[in-house]
Amino acid sequence: MIPQFYLLTPPITDVMAFRAKLEPVLATGAVAVLRAVFAAGNDTELKGPASALCRLVQEAGAAMLIDMPADARLVARLGIDGVHVAGPGPRLDEAVEALKPDRIVGIGGLKARHDAMEAGERDIDYVMFGEPRPDGTLPAFSQTVERAEWWASIFTVPCVAYAPDLDGVEALALTGAEFIALGPWLFEAEDPAALLAEARRRVKERSLRPAGT
């Protein structure tokens, strides 16, 4: 199995400027999911930027997710494909109730295996391991690899594993995770599209290589 790419954006303050950077990335055809993070302070401020980006992403054949807004119903009203929820609890319950089965609901911020297993029992579409914490720090990459291998070997709910850099992509390609997440570091590169193309090349090479080589 060759994993697909899930992109996590930096906080977007200027949609038009970010759109110019995103278009070549989408044109690679390598993006399955884009999780767009907006600098908007509330749902009202979110509407315009999210709508402007959503059509571009969907026309490229990718799904667009946003972080869980204050009102989950906003997602359907804007035609966005789904949400990402940061951690278990009432917000996950609200997302599932409001958006399933028509929209995607995924979860990250899972600090323990138990949290992941409990979340996986809900009607969700993925669990995510290794994503940046609210303060920007990352869990140990070895832990992300271990969690992704554990989850992919046992559970049917898809797994998204976060790569902290290009080298991390290769290690995650061997875990069995259905998606590899590339974060804001991709968009900080001089040529994000070229970097994504290189990540795709490495994933294909590593995924198709015989075990043990």
Strand-residue fraction?
15-25%
Task: Count the DSSP helices.
Answer: 9
What is the helix fraction of residues, given as a range?
40-55%
Q: How much is the average pLDDT?
A: 94
* String of helices and strands: EHEHEHEHEHEHEHEHH
**Overall morphology:** globular
Largest sheet: 8 strands, parallel, barrel
User: Runs with pLDDT <50, length 5+?
Assistant: none
> Span between N and C termini?
17 Å
Strand numbers in spatial order across the main sheet: 1-2-3-4-5-6-7-8
Radius of gyration: 16 Å
Based on helices, strands and strand pairing, what is the structural class? alpha/beta
For the secondary structure, the number of strands is 8
What is the element layout, followed by pairings?
Blueprint: E1 4-8, H1 15-27, E2 31-36, H2 43-59, E3 63-67, H3 73-78, E4 82-86, H4 90-99, E5 104-108, H5 113-120, E6 126-129, H6 141-154, E7 159-163, H7 166-173, E8 179-182, H8 184-187, H9 192-208
Parallel strand pairs: 1-2, 1-8, 2-3, 3-4, 4-5, 5-6, 6-7, 7-8
Task: Describe the overall structure.
The protein is an alpha/beta fold and 213 residues long. Helices cover 46% and strands 18% of the residues. The protein has helices at residues 15-27, 43-59, 73-78, 90-99, 113-120, 141-154, 166-173, 184-187, 192-208, and strands at 4-8, 31-36, 63-67, 82-86, 104-108, 126-129, 159-163, 179-182. It has an 8-stranded parallel beta barrel, surrounded by 5 helices. Helix 1 (15-27) runs parallel beside helix 2 and helix 7 (166-173) runs parallel beside helix 9 (192-208).
